[in-house]
């Protein structure tokens, strides 16, 4: 197999364009071969389409190092984040930054934040009988979770949300994103210094006081990690929650199944939502050196696209893969990547999604899409093609 010769697909540039029938396009390409050569920002990219290839590529940090792409794509606005790091630096930073998000911290640290916050947001609109859930819930909840886990004052949270929003739109509005990046640094650096002097039980205190392999994080490393949390933790979870809601609201029999036993079914609805429409759908990477990998000849500097969304609909792993079916009982872990850069917040994300979905269904009985809102609530590309979710979610319920 070789990447020279004609492209496998023309008419869509995978760096820029939304394709309404994306899943069909990916399935057609995968039926031909496990990868495809497609246009990406005007050059040829290798799109990996099967569960086997995407999983192998994530684990092969030597051939497709995260550090070959993130300094270019997010480095200017987020700084030198975990995603830009490799080797010992990455190990030390992860060893300090990821334990606060683990399941073992749930009872005392994470759970007390999640359900009360979901109720607090829903209190604002529950009596109304209708809402636009992206604006009023899904885009607010995950960033407020982060803001509270960081121990930031509640009165600052609207400002924090505005910075998070501007960082998200970096590819389209780079000036606003750079300004948000600077202003967030000016706001958070004094907080970091105060917490170092007088640590509490919050995430920032842990980042500035803990060490691994005899090393502490530098101010710049802590700052970059905190900035990374907005796109990596908040925006992903926002899209995941909205995608699962779209799935349930467009599959009434599945919603009924969830409502018949929420304690048992909500966790599986969350996993199936992540499989059916993972928020990080088409993850860009790069192949810096020329290589022959899994039988594919890849020239140096080739952009790679790890199609998580095609992998999670690979019929070799998931029978009848396009069907949204919460009785599959599959944990679609690939939605969180794999290998050394796998998601550091997987458990937090799952806890947030399960809590939010459970509370929404409990508080909004008879939840349904507003009549005729199907097209508005369509899952589409968000800020380039990597991320996918609905832009709006107009719903009604019974009051
Ligand atoms: C449903 C929600 C989420 C999804 C689908 C998701 C997905 C991912 C994926 C696919 C990666 C790997 C990226 C790569 O290899 O280039 C990643 C990395 C990461 N995620 Fe998540 N994520 C979610 C929520 C969160 C949350 C809540 C946090 C909070 C801590 C978080 C923190 C991170 C961090 C810090 C990384 C970088 C890890 C590293 O480079 O070592 N994510 N995430």
Automatic annotation (TrEMBL):
Q: Which PROSITE patterns match?
A: CYTOCHROME_P450
Q: Which Pfam families match?
A: p450
| Keyword annotations of the record | Heme, Iron, Metal-binding, Monooxygenase, Oxidoreductase
Q: Which InterPro entries match?
A: Cyt_P450, Cyt_P450_B, Cyt_P450_CS, Cyt_P450_sf
**A GO MF term:** iron ion binding
Q: Does the keyword Cell inner membrane apply?
A: no
* Highest rank taxon of the organism: Bacteria
Q: Which SUPFAM superfamilies match?
A: Cytochrome P450
Q: Give the similarity note.
A: Belongs to the cytochrome P450 family.
Protein name per UniProt = Cytochrome P450
Organism equals Amycolatopsis acidicola
Which lineage do the record's taxonomy fields give for this organism? Bacteria, Bacillati, Actinomycetota, Actinomycetes, Pseudonocardiales
């Amino acid at each position: 197999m070789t990447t020279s010769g004609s492209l496998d697909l023309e008419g869509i540039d995978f760096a820029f364009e939304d394709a309404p029938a994306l899943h069909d396009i990916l399935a057609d390409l995968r039926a031909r071969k496990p990868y495809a050569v497609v246009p990406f920002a005007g050059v040829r990219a290798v799109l990996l389409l099967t569960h086997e290839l995407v999983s192998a590529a994530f684990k092969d940090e030597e051939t497709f190092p995260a550090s070959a792409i993130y300094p270019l794509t997010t480095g200017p606005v987020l700084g030198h984040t975990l995603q830009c790091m490799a080797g010992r630096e990455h190990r030390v930073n992860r060893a300090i930054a990821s334990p606060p998000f683990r399941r073992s911290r749930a009872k005392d640290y994470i759970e007390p934040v999640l359900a009360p916050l979901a109720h607090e947001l829903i209190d604002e609109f529950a009596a109304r009988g209708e809402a636009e859930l992206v604006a009023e819930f899904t885009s607010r909840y995950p960033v407020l979770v982060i803001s509270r886990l960081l121990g930031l004052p509640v009165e600052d949270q609207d400002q924090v949300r505005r910075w998070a929003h501007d960082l998200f739109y970096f590819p389209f509005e780079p000036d606003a994103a750079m300004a948000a990046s600077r202003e967030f640094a000016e706001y958070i650096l004094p907080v970091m210094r105060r917490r170092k002097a007088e640590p509490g039980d919050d995430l920032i205190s842990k980042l500035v006081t803990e060490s691994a392999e005899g090393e502490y994080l530098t101010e710049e490393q802590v700052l970059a990690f905190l900035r990374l949390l907005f796109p990596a933790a908040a925006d992903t979870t926002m899209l995941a929650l909205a995608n699962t809601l779209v799935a349930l609201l467009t599959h009434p029999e599945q919603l009924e199944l969830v409502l018949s036993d929420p304690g048992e079914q909500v966790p599986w609805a969350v996993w199936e939502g992540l499989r059916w429409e993972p928020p990080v759908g088409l993850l860009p990477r790069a192949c810096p050196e020329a290589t022959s990998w899994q039988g594919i000849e890849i020239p140096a500097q080739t952009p790679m696209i790890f199609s998580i969304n095609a992998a999670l609909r690979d019929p070799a792993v998931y029978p009848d893969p396009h069907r949204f079916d919460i009785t599959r009982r599959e944990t679609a872990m690939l939605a969180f990547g794999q290998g050394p850069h796998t998601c550091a917040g997987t458990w937090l994300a799952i806890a947030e999604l399960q809590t939010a979905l459970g509370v929404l269904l409990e508080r909004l009985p008879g939840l349904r899409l507003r009549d005729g809102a199907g097209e508005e609530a369509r899952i589409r590309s968000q800020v380039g093609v990597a991320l996918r979710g609905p832009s709006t979610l107009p719903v009604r319920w019974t009051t």
